[in-house]
Amino acid sequence: MSDASNTRRHFRQNVIAHDQVADSYDEKHVEIFNSVEQERLAKVVAEVRSLAARPAPDMLDVGAGTGNLSLKFLSVGCRVCAADVSSRSLEQLARKVPDGSLLSTRLLVDNRLPFPDGSFDIVGAYSVLHHIPDYLFAVREMARVLRPGGLIYIDHEWSDRSWRSDPALEQYRALTKLSPWEHLWTLVRSGEAFTLAFAKTVFMKAFVNRRYEREGDIHIWPDDHIEWRRVEAVLAEGEAPIVRSQEYLHYKPRGGRALYDQFRDRCSDMQFVIARKLG
Question: Which domain holds residue 51?
Answer without folding.
Answer: 3-161+215-276
